[in-house]
Write a structure and sequence with these properties.
The chain is an alpha/beta fold. Helices cover about 40% and strands about 15% of the residues. The protein has one domain (about 25-220, about 245-265): Divalent-metal-dependent TIM barrel enzymes (TIM Barrel, Alpha-Beta Barrel).
């Protein structure tokens, strides 16, 4: 038993489900959780453990080559719950805007080729030296307007991700589901939806009402825990489910009531998790998913 199997000094209360266990039917491995694995290795890890879906990241897809990655995914039979990530739309100026649009168009094309349900959009933080948050948010809206129809024509939904306010300055100027829905609702639902990530929304006193409001616009769900104390690099502060403070079952119940029946990705950015054996990590996340996240 690895240290990852022991939350708060207590062993896991469930055995590792075998491949084919119906409790795993909606589980997806976000590739960033096992950051050392290539596309092929992550796919093989999912197949060994019985995880039926995978959330891919653009960088390892590029390392593998898009055409080869498509073949690997196609042969595996896995669903692609999302492609991470598009976005970073806040830099000012026509040249920066053109670069952002081109980059995101490529991401949309990659998502379409891979058969991803959606492209997760991390919209970007404040430009260097800027304190003008409303202006950054206006640029996000303008550039989503340029991208929405392009994505829909290729069968890809843009899944805007609200991010915890600690990342507002450097990663995501959309901080709440309410804010994100205000933007998403300007577009047809088949063009623009939202990502609900427990790490980013668990603290919000309006989360239940906003999940209900989101309804069919929820196109991606990601889970990990909020752990304290936060590490020095807050980007790597996501914990294994059960190691922190989030009431996952309450959030999953809200999502179910809102009509979300899609995949549930485990996305953990954490240096200790990345340093551990990826197969051990996968075993742990399966047990923790059943123990803490799955709603009967």
């Amino acid at each position: 038993m690895t240290s990852l199997d022991v939350p708060s000094g207590e062993p896991a209360s469930v055995a590792t489900p075998a491949p084919g266990d119906p409790r795993l039917a909606r589980l997806s491995l976000n590739q960033r959780t096992t950051a050392r694995w290539s596309v092929r290795e992550a796919v093989e890890g999912c197949l060994r453990s019985g995880i039926p879906a995978i959330g891919l990241w653009r960088e390892p897809v590029a390392d593998t080559g898009l055409a080869k990655a498509c073949r690997i995914i196609g042969a595996s039979g896995l669903r692609v719950s999302s492609l991470c990530r598009g976005g970073f739309l806040t830099e000012p100026g026509a040249a920066a805007g053109s670069r952002a649009i081109s980059s995101n168009q490529r991401a949309i094309e990659e998502a379409a080729a891979l058969g991803a349900r959606c492209l997760v959009m991390v919209v970007g933080g404040l430009p260097a030296g800027s304190r003008d948050l409303p202006d950054a948010r206006r640029r996000v809206a303008d550039r989503i307007t340029e991208l929405a129809a392009y994505a829909a024509e290729r069968g890809v939904q843009l899944a805007l991700e609200p991010m915890n306010p600690i990342f507002c300055a450097d990663r995501g100027v959309l901080s709440t589901l309410s804010q994100t829905l205000d933007l998403a609702e300007r577009f047809p639902v088949e063009q623009v939806g939202v990502t609900v990530d427990t790490f980013h929304v668990w603290w919000d006193p309006d989360v239940a009402a906003m999940i209900d409001r989101a309804g069919a616009r929820i196109v991606a769900c990601q889970v990990c825990d909020w752990i304290t104390p936060l590490p020095a690099d807050t980007l790597l502060s996501r914990g294994m489910m059960g190691d922190g403070h989030i009431d996952f079952r309450s959030l999953m119940t809200m999502l179910g009531r809102a009509g979300y029946a899609g995949d549930i990705e485990v996305e953990i950015l954490n240096a200790d998790v990345w340093a551990a054996d990826p197969d051990a990590v996968v075993g742990t996340l399966i047990r923790r998913y059943v123990e803490h996240v799955l709603v009967a």
